[in-house]
Automatic annotation (TrEMBL):
Catalytic activity: 5,6-dimethylbenzimidazole + nicotinate beta-D-ribonucleotide = alpha-ribazole 5'-phosphate + nicotinate + H(+)
Family classification: Belongs to the CobT family.
Domain of life per record: Bacteria
Protein name: Nicotinate-nucleotide--dimethylbenzimidazole phosphoribosyltransferase
Biological or metabolic pathway of the protein: Nucleoside biosynthesis; alpha-ribazole biosynthesis; alpha-ribazole from 5,6-dimethylbenzimidazole: step 1/2
Protein species of origin: Chloracidobacterium validum
Gene3D superfamilies assigned to the protein according to its UniProt record, in alphabetical order: 1.10.1610.10, 3.40.50.10210
Entry-linked NCBIfam families: cobT_DBIPRT (TIGR03160), PRK00105.1 (NF000996)
Gene that specifies this protein: cobT
Length: 349
């Protein structure tokens, strides 16, 4: 394993479970039937452990979107051309994208990162620049990236979170934008879970049934060609991943190292979360899961991670949109935990 990546993994310490136990003990004393707030109770306890405090907070918070292009798009695996990536990124900046609206609605900072977009974005304001290359290589014929490139993208994601933590951010939603990234995510998922490609591959941005069949065939041929090691997440990432996936993997690791709650979005984001958890199992304890995507591979990843998402809205937009929608739920969980009266305070029981 590269020395820098090992240093990142060594920086991860477990959440403070004493605060989780304290939170659950308080939940048992609140004026309500035991367990009646369901996942809100476990979320509050997890947040307490992550932040090592009896009163966890959900703000300030940031939505981070890692943008990158994918060389495999030349195989016709997407309903849209690769040029949409940089065009839509500009929509993020001008405020017309769904996630820009959700960021404003939820009182969240929005951070757009270029980790591998196939365009010169140096003229755009408000972009965090970390471009590794202008898109990955076509993984049908060669590895998507080199080990050094994967490490560079992971480092960018890790250090991005480190800077946010220094600013006092307590919660980060982690998402992506990049035409072709559901193909990379499906390939990563098939390799990591050892499920056949047809079980974990969906329509992405809107493929027809014929298009999905072709997408599955491309993924199967790539996996047969490269034979990524299912026990080596870095090998999977290098052979069939993407720079957005690598940066998000680094971001999940960064959240764990900085004791920041990480909210995974949908399929692509959760594929990165699964890679991070495979590299550092302890990082899983810092993850929450926003929603269950309509993409079929998402459930396979959730099963591996033993995760229950907070929402199920049949979304497949990406952009951290599902993760952002959970912010009010996190707000409610922490507010109820801190502010509800106990039976003793209410003179009940």
């Amino acid at each position: 394993m590269p020395r820098l990546l090992q240093r990142f993994l060594n920086a991860i310490q477990p959440p403070d479970q004493a605060f989780a136990e304290q939170a659950l003990a308080r939940q048992a004393q609140l004026v309500k039937p035991p367990g009646s707030l369901g996942q809100l109770e476990t979320v509050a306890a997890q947040m307490a452990a992550i932040q090592a405090t009896p009163t966890p907070q959900t703000s300030p918070r940031t939505i981070v979107i890692f943008c990158a292009d994918h060389g495999v798009c030349v195989e016709g695996i997407s309903a849209f051309p690769a040029s949409i990536t940089h065009q839509h990124l500009r929509n993020f900046i001008t405020g017309g994208a769904a996630i820009a609206i959700l960021a404003e609605l939820t009182g969240s900072q929005l951070l757009i990162c270029d980790v591998g977009v196939d365009a010169d974005l140096s003229d755009l304001p408000g972009i965090r620049h970390g471009k590794v290359q202008r898109g990955t290589r076509n993984f049908l014929v060669e590895p998507a990236m080199t080990t050094a490139e994967a490490e560079q993208a992971i480092r960018f994601g890790f250090e991005t979170i480190g800077e946010l933590a220094e600013q006092g951010q307590r919660v980060v939603a982690i998402g992506e934008m990049g035409i072709g990234n559901t193909t990379a995510a499906a390939a990563v998922t098939a390799a990591l879970t050892q499920r056949p490609p047809e079980e974990v591959t969906g329509r992405g941005s809107g493929l027809s049934t014929t298009g999905v069949t072709h997408k599955v065939a491309v993924i199967r041929r790539a996996l047969e060609h490269h034979r990524p090691n299912p026990n080596d997440p870095l090998d999977i990432l290098v052979k069939v991943g993407g720079f957005d996936l690598a940066a998000m993997c680094g971001a999940f690791l960064g959240c764990a190292a900085s004791r920041v709650a990480a909210v995974a979005d949908g399929f692509v984001s959760t594929a990165a979360a699964a890679l991070a958890a495979a590299l550092a199992p302890m990082a899983r304890e810092f993850m929450l899961f926003g929603h269950r995507s309509a993409e079929p591979g998402h459930q396979a990843l959730l099963d591996v991670l033993q995760a229950t998402p907070l929402l199920q809205l049949d979304m497949r937009l990406g952009e951290a949109s599902g993760a952002a929608l959970t912010f009010p739920i996190l707000d409610a969980a922490c507010r109820l935990h801190a502010s509800m009266a106990t039976f003793a305070e209410a003179n009940l029981g």
